[in-house]
Design brief:
The structure is a single chain. The chain is α/β, with parallel strands linked by helices and 726 residues long. It has five domains: 54 residues, no CATH class; 103 residues, no CATH class; 91 residues, Threonyl-tRNA Synthetase, Chain A, domain 2, CATH 3.30.980; 271 residues, Rossmann fold (3-Layer(aba) Sandwich), CATH 3.40.50; 92 residues, Arc Repressor Mutant, subunit A. It contains 25 helices and 17 strands. It has a ten-stranded mixed β-sheet. Strands 1-2-4-3 form a four-stranded antiparallel β-sheet. The chain is elongated. It starts with a helix and ends with a helix. Bound molecules: adenosine-5'-triphosphate. The site of adenosine-5'-triphosphate (ATP) has 15 residues, from helix 13 and strand 14. Keywords: ATP-binding, Membrane, Nucleotide-binding, Transmembrane, Transmembrane helix. It comes from Nonomuraea antimicrobica. This is FtsK/SpoIIIE domain-containing protein.
């Protein structure tokens, strides 16, 4: 193989025909150029021409277009950034008005002090006025010129200047005399004719003028109403200095004398209440490395930690850093009110307001067709975040709420009045209720799938619930929200854990398309407390402060920490602030709306009224019993309601018998359609490894037909196996 061929397979192509003079030159100097026609020497292994890896720049249309595109990016925006959104414009106008009002009030309060200062400066002002008057009267500004004429012995010039000066002084003397007489007469007139307040006003004016004239240049009359430069502008030098202080050697090299420097792909600009800088870090340095040193970065920028928010840009290379530096710490910045706090209702098919990002922009979450996982170390705002989402859900009268707060402090108690199922506490009864409710929803999965499957295709074109279907009461496809706070209490429980995990896994996988939303919050996101199958299938992930990358990735998804999405960067004071994945294209930093207990009560009261008016209160909210965990054995019960002679039997027939045999356990199946009964029992039998199949039988009218059924012997075998395992 020739070198050229070899290169062709690698990164260097044989561009013999197009080879540039530069390439030839380089090849010649390295002695590698070889005539393609020359006689082949046996030792020659080289053919063709060596081509430079870096081709010389060729100007052409493509380059021009690229350049134009770059230049377009450099254009300043036609409309200033703050005028683009109504909210931002209002913010700026309000700020200006408030600022002007503040400055006015500040000086008004100090008016007496300013008056005293002026009075004290009046003698100096009068003296300065007198000096200026004398200088003018005696034409002292011409004195140096006249002296120069004397010293140069220019007699004619001196005589002309003296004459001019005498005339000037005479004229000015007359002007002054007339002015003084006029002033005295006017003064007497004013003193006699005008009321006293005019006298005082004139005295005040005189003091003002003389006081201002007497003010030293370095001692301004007015105090400073605003301490300047509290909010410093962010400059590229500051950013470079800060990056240089991180101790990352590649950054230091780039900033060093022979380094390539660090580039800014866009100008540093105002973005909301702060500054935004985009930085291309040196080759090989990732944003992740900078995120690890957020505190050092803040120190380098000389800003509070809560103001400094470095972020990766997922659609760019891993070295593209967006640095947003707020005027104020995020936790101290005034949070806009939650849009639903005072009024309004929602549809879960639309995004619901959740909180704000660092720039104060509202962040909403589309809950429909998703599941949510919220995690953090204790006391960083999980329950508050969960409560915001649940209060929004409560304001959709169609949504059925099943709420389990397994901490027991009553954080979700405001919502009890609207909940279909509600239990609190890390007690056995609360866990049992939670498992029973999950089992209920688990069975609901099949029923809903059957219903959707049975609909005409144009009503459910994507095989999932639409707002129209959700609103039809006859179908029972309304949104169901199952929320479990401190879910580790349930999943790590010896008695309930396994069963709960089984239901939750199925719900998290199949629920979204069927209008069932599972929201889990946990303070212990390890594999025992949160089964992998559950954490892996959550679409929306909210991670408040955690201590290590494992917890971070368990909540936000594998590789997130490595990619720079690090909830470990939050500090002690960053309560309610989280990384959220799955609510926008890129992960976002978001602070949940702060809704305290009393506010939550008021919102829940409104939700109650909405539901009452819509006739949508159900379950415990209208006094029904909490869900009971039925301790029964389905296999034993099937064997009890069938006889050995019935080798094969239809599901629907068995369900009928079961509902009569044990109404407390199977009563909820009684009202199901025939097909739903069949599907429900199929799903339950599958859990025990019993298969169902088409089975020949006769219906109540005596007509023979095929329907889903099972072999009684299979049930007996599964039952026997279970017994031996126990
Ligand atoms: N958005 C927020 N803004 C400001 N402070 C908040 C916010 N959310 C929560 N907090 C503060 O954080 C504290 C802890 O919140 P919360 O009870 O939700 O934490 P938690 O993570 O659920 O704790 P635990 O694990 O002990 O249940 C609250 O008392 C509240 O003062």
């Amino acid at each position: 193989m020739t070198v050229t061929e070899e290169m062709h397979n690698g990164i260097i192509a044989d561009l013999r025909e197009e080879t540039s003079p530069l390439a030839h030159e380089t090849a010649a100097t390295t002695g590698l150029e070889k005539s393609t026609e020359g006689s082949a020497n046996e030792n020659d292994v080289l053919e063709g021409a060596v081509v430079l890896v870096d081709q010389p720049h060729r100007s052409g249309q493509v380059d021009l277009l690229a350049e134009l595109a770059v230049r377009r990016q450099e254009r300043s925006p036609l409309v200033p950034v703050w005028l683009r959104s109504r909210a931002d414009a209002l913010h700026v106008v309000k700020w200006q008005a408030e600022h002007a009002g503040y400055v006015f009030a500040y000086h008004l309060l100090r008016a007496p002090k300013y008056a005293v200062k002026l009075l004290a400066r009046t003698p100096a002002g009068a003296w300065r006025l007198l000096v200026e008057l004398v200088r003018w009267l005696l034409d002292l500004e011409g004195h140096p010129v006249r002296r120069a004429a004397v010293s140069k012995e220019q007699a004619a010039e001196y005589l002309a200047l003296s004459r001019q000066r005498d005339n000037r002084v005479k004229a000015r003397l007359w002007t002054l005399l007339i002015g003084a007489v006029t002033l005295i007469v006017a003064g007497i007139l004013v003193a006699v004719v005008t009321p006293t307040w005019v006298h005082w006003a004139i005295v005040g004016m005189l003091i003002g003028v003389l006081g201002a004239l007497g003010s030293p240049a370095d001692q301004p009359l007015l105090d400073r109403a605003v301490v300047p430069a509290r909010v410093r502008k962010l400059t590229s030098d500051q950013v470079l200095d800060a990056l240089g202080s991180l101790g990352i050697s590649a950054v230091n090299q780039a900033l060093g004398k022979k380094g390539r420097g660090i580039t800014f792909p866009a100008p540093i600009m105002r973005d909301g209440p702060g500054w935004r800088a985009e930085v291309d870090l040196p080759l090989g340095v990732t944003v992740s490395e900078v995120l690890d040193k957020r505190d050092k970065l803040a120190s380098g920028l000389r800003r509070a930690l809560g103001c400094v928010w470095p972020e990766p840009v997922s659609e760019e290379h891993p070295g593209r850093l967006v640095l947003w530096v707020g005027d104020q710490e995020m936790r101290k910045a005034r949070q806009p009110a939650w849009p639903l706090a005072k009024s309004g209702q929602v549809s879960l098919f639309e995004p619901v307001p959740y909180g704000n990002d660092q720039r104060g922009r509202p962040i909403s979450i589309l809950l429909m067709f998703a599941n949510v996982l919220i995690g953090s170390m204790p006391r960083y705002g999980k329950t508050f975040a969960l409560r915001v989402l649940l209060l929004a859900c409560a304001l959709d009268p169609l949504a059925e709420l099943r709420l389990f707060e397994l901490k027991g402090t009553g954080d979700l108690s405001a919502l009890e009045k609207v909940a279909h199922h509600y239990a609190k506490g890390a007690t056995d009864s609360a866990k049992a209720a939670c498992v029973a409710s999950l089992a209920d929803v688990y069975a609901e999965l099949d029923r809903r799938a059957e219903v959707i499957d049975g609909l005409p295709r144009h009503e459910a074109p994507e095989f999932k619930i639409t707002p129209e279907l959700a609103a039809r009461r006859d179908l029972g496809l309304h949104p169901v929200v199952v929320a479990i706070d401190e879910c580790q209490e349930l999943f790590a429980d010896d008695e309930y854990g396994e069963e709960a995990a089984k239901y939750a896994t199925a719900i998290i996988k199949r629920g979204p398309a069927l209008g069932i939303i599972l929201i889990l919050a946990t303070q212990r996101p390890d594999k025992d407390s949160l089964p992998k199958a559950i954490s892996a299938n959550a679409g929306i992930r909210i991670c408040l402060r955690v201590m290590g990358w494992q917890e971070n990735d368990m909540i936000l998804g594998t590789g997130m920490h490595q990619a720079g999405v690090k909830a470990t960067m939050f500090t002690l004071n960053d309560k309610g602030i989280s990384w959220a994945v799955g609510i926008a294209e890129d992960p976002v930093i978001v602070r949940s709306a702060y809704l305290d207990g009393p506010t939550s009560e008021l919102i829940a009261d409104r939700a109650h009224q909405l539901r009452q008016a819509a006739g949508m209160l159900s379950g415990q909210a209208i006094g029904q019993q909490p869900p009971q965990r039925v301790s029964y054995d389905l296999l034993a019960d099937i064997l009890a309601v069938t006889t050995a002679k019935e080798e094969k039997i239809w599901n629907s027939a068995v369900v009928e018998r079961l509902t009569q045999f044990r109404p407390d356990a199977y009563g909820q199946w009684a009202d199901l359609e025939d097909d739903a009964k069949t599907a429900t029992l199929t799903a339950r039998l599958k859990e025990y490894g019993v298969k169902t199949d088409d089975t020949w039988g006769r219906d109540s009218a005596g007509n023979g037909r095929n329907r889903k059924g099972f072999n009684r012997a299979d049930v007996a075998e599964a039952y026997g196996q279970r017994k031996t395992q126990l």
